[in-house]
Amino acid sequence: QLVAYEVKRMRAEEGNKQNILRHIRELAEKLYKNENPYPAVTMHTVKKPKEGHHLRVQQKPFPRLDEGLVQWIIDQATAKLQTAPPAVKAEVKCMVPSGPPIAAIMERNGNAMANSARRLEVVRNCISYVFENKMLEAKKLFPAVLRAMKGRAARQCLTQELNLHVQQNRAVLDHQQFDFVIRMMNCCLQDCTAMDEHGIAAALLPLVTAFCRKLSPGITQFAYSCVQEHV
Asked: Under the phi-then-psi rule, with left for phi > 0, alpha for psi from -120 to 50, and beta for the rest, what region is 52?
């Protein structure tokens, strides 16, 4: 059913996180109901008497039960059970159309991979322009780089590329380069999740203590002073 009915809807929702999450919740609910068709049975717990309860004088005697009344209640309940509908729902069989061909779905995944590769290329090019002092080209690509930071692969690519420049002894930046690198790091950390804490955020730690700029003779500002507010 998912393949048959939902592919168009999923394509329409691409890029809208709210709709995607709502859709996932709906699917999760359907799957849960499918696995757990019967509601949970509540168990009645009987409290244990406290210690020394038998020594108390003010105990009330248990009342005598009316045999006729008890039998009447049992008969009423039995009559209700006999007329009640069956608890298990009868399975409704239906024909599900085949939906779009598998090739269409594979093609869509291929496009997604190509898009991902293009984003990583944009990140690499922008960082190269920054370090080559081609600021006009870097500015053109910068909005696309910030958008790409939403993806985990792009965040990893950023840490790897910056690490390469540190290894080439290119950690001391001028003011414009420093500004670009800080903005990329801030955007990367802003989009990090708890899953990235020991990966991307940890990979950035040595980099923020390496990249710096000279403010005046004898005074150096390191990158960590601009990104240390992130959780």
From this structure: left
- C-alpha span between 211 and 206 (Å, rounded): 9
Residue with tokens 């692969």: 153
Cα gap 155→114, rounded to integer Å: 17
> For tokens 């923020």, what's the residue?
208
Query: 24: which 2 tokens?
Result: 């996932």
DSSP designation for 54: G
Q: Which of 129, 209, 227, 215 is nearest to 177 (CA)?
A: 129
Task: Classify residue 23 as exposed, middle or buried by CB count within 10 Å of its CB (0-12, 13-18, 19+).
Answer: middle
Beta bridge partners of 221: 213
Q: In this structure, are residues 149 and 187 in contact, taking their beta carbons and an 8 Å threshold?
A: yes
For residue 133, the one-letter residue type is N
Which tokens is 140 given? Answer: 């053109």
> How far apart, in whole angstroms, are the C-alpha atoms of residue 114 and residue 106?
12
Q: What is the pTM of this model?
A: 0.48
The tokens of 145 are what?
């780089």
Q: How far is Cα 138 from Cα 191, in angstroms, rounded to an integer?
A: 21
**What string of pLDDT tens digits covers the 231 residues of the chain?**
666 667 777 777 777 888 888 888 888 888 888 777 666 666 667 777 777 777 776 667 788 889 999 999 999 988 888 877 666 666 778 777 776 665 555 555 555 555 678 888 888 899 889 888 888 888 888 888 888 888 888 888 888 888 888 887 778 888 888 898 999 888 888 877 777 777 888 888 888 888 888 888 888 888 888 888 887
